[in-house]
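## Example record

The block below lists the input lines for one assembly entry, exactly as stored, with component labels intact.
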Amino acid sequence: LPRIAVSLGDPSGIGPEITAAALALPKVRRALVPVVFGDERAWKRACRIAQVPDRLERRALASAATGPALVPVTTLREKDLQPGKPTAAGGRAQLAFFERALDAVLEGQADGLCTAPVSKEGIAKAGIPFTGHTEVLAERFGARVLMLLAGPKLRVAVHTTHVALSEVPRRISTKGIVEDLVLFDRGLKAGLGIAHPRLAVCGLNPHAGDGGLFGDEESRLIAPAIRRARAKGIDASGPWAADGVIGRAAAGAFDGVLAMFHDQGLVAFKLLHFDEGVNLTLGLPRPRTSPDHGVAYDLAGTGRANPASMTAALLLCARLASQVPQAARGVRLASRK
Amino acid sequence: LPRIAVSLGDPSGIGPEITAAALALPKVRRALVPVVFGDERAWKRACRIAQVPDRLERRALASAATGPALVPVTTLREKDLQPGKPTAAGGRAQLAFFERALDAVLEGQADGLCTAPVSKEGIAKAGIPFTGHTEVLAERFGARVLMLLAGPKLRVAVHTTHVALSEVPRRISTKGIVEDLVLFDRGLKAGLGIAHPRLAVCGLNPHAGDGGLFGDEESRLIAPAIRRARAKGIDASGPWAADGVIGRAAAGAFDGVLAMFHDQGLVAFKLLHFDEGVNLTLGLPRPRTSPDHGVAYDLAGTGRANPASMTAALLLCARLASQVPQAARGVRLASRK
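Predicted C-alpha cells for the full assembly:
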C-alpha cells in the first residue's frame, strides 16, 4: 500500500476531526498507510470529536513508519486547540505539520502528500508569510505547478492562484498558459485516466472581452497560447466567456477548464462540488491532494463537519501514488530547503 | 394589463424566435400586452422558426398600440437575417429596436421594457460603441442602476459590469457599494416581495483577501460600505470569500449576493440558472428585464433555442409593471436623449 503523509492542518479548524473521521473509514484504511504529521493532543481530541477510535501508533520519526503512524511535531496546549479560536502557536504548528509531511515526501519516506486545511490568516497571525500550500510546493520542488480542482462533473485549473485581483492582469502570460495546458493535459491523462482531454480556456475579461470591447488580453496573450498548445497536440480551445463555458464543461462538453484567476474558476467549482471536490497539485514528481474547502471555524468542534472531501483527497492521493513508476519510488528527491 | 415594450434583439441570433415562442404562450398573453419593436421580415421568419402563429398587428407608431402590436423599426433584407451571420445592417437594427422600445417607455407609451439578446460584438461591427443595455439605460434615465440576475435559488447583483478586468479594482468605491446595496435592498423588497432581504457582499480578492494577505480593498473600501449600509437599516454582511458565500446563498442563507465584478457573480448564476434566470435592472422608474443568456448564434434558426428565460423575463416585467403606482403611470418621464 502507498504511504501517504498527511498534515493535520489548523488545530482550531475542522482539519484534525475530518482527518480522524476519514482515516477511520475501512475504504481509506484499505487504500493507504497514513503517516500523520500533527500533535498528539490535537489528534486525540479530533478522534473524540469525530467519535472514532485512535488507531495510530505514535512514532518519533517518520522514517520509522512501517504502519499507520502519528508523528508528533508539536506539543500544543489546550488553549491552542479551541475550535474557532486560532492562536499564534496554532498558526506556527499547522505550518510545521505541513513542512514535516513535505520533508517526508521529499526524502522518500512517503509516496504522496495529503494536506488538511490551513488558515492563511492564522499562519500570518503567527508572523509567518504564507500564501498557500500550492505556492510552497512549487518553491520546494522547484517546479511549475498547476492547481486543479477535480469533482465528478467539473475539473478546473487556475492560471493565477492566491494573488490580489489587481495583480491578475499582469500575471497572465502566453508562456505560462502553454505550460499550464501541458501540465493539465498530462495530469488528466496520467492522473485521472482521460485518454484525450478536451480543455477549454477562459478569457480574462467578461464575455472574453466581447471581441476586444473590454480588454485585449484574449487576442494578445491567451489566443496565441491556445494556438501553441494545439501545435503540441493538446486539444485546447478558447478563449471562451467563462460564464458560458463552465456550464458547458459541467454538462460534459469539456474535460477540463483553465480559468485565468481564482474566483473565475473556484466559485463555480465549489458551488457544484462543495463536499466532494479534491484539490490536486499537478506538476510535482509525487502526488499532492487536499480537500477543496477551508478550516470552517464555525463548524470546528461540533462533529458536524463533512469528511467527504478529505476522504476523496486521501483516496485520490493513494491512487495516484500507486501509479508512480516503481523505479521512481524510494528515490531521494532533491530538497530545495 | 401592463403594456410591455419588447425589443427583438439581434436578427441573426435567437432573440426573435424566443420572443415569438414566449409571446405565443397563453400565460404570457394573459399577463401583458406586448408592443414589439423590430422588423416585419425578421418577426415573420421568427414565427415560422418557432412554429407559432403571427398574432401581432403591425402598427406604424407605438403610440397607437391598444393591443398586441409589432412596430417595424427597420426594413431588413434576407441577407441580414441569416442565423449566426451578423451583418452591419443587423448590428444597427438591434440597437434601433432597443432605442425605439426605450423611447416608448420614456414617453409613457409602455409600462415596462423587456429586451431580447443583442450581440455587443455585432453592434460594434456596425461601428457603434455599445457596452450593454444596462449602461445605456443608466445614461438615458439619468439614474444609478444595478444589474440583478434573479433565479429560483440565487439572486446576484454586480458592482461593476462590462469593463476589462484590469479596470475593476479602480472602479470599486465605497459610495457606489452603498448605493448598490440601497438599490438591491429596495429592489428585493418592492420587486420580488422579500420583506427583510439578507444581503451578502463579496470581497474583491480571492478568499476576500485572506485578512489582507492579497489585496486590501476589503478593509479599505468594502467593509466601510457594509457598515454604512447597516447604519441605514440594510441587513448587509461581508466582505465574504466569493467561493464560499455564493454556495451558502444558493442554499438559502442569503437573499442576495453583491458580487464585485462580472465573472465573480455571473459564472455561478449561469451555472445554476441557465434556462430560467432573468436579468433585472434595478434603479429605474420603470421595470426592465431580459433573459440571462446571449444571442447563441450556434442555435439560431434551428428552433431548438429554449424560450424559458425570455418567458420568465416577460412575466417578471409584467408583474413589476403592475406594481408601479397608478399615479406614476402615463406620466411623461424626462428623456435625456
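The interface with chain B takes residues 120-121, 124, 131, 161-169, 204-207, 209-211, 213-215, 217, 242-244, 246-247, 250, 261-264, 266-272, 274, 294 of chain A (CB under 8 Å). The CA atoms of residues 299 and 305 of chain A lie 6 Å apart.
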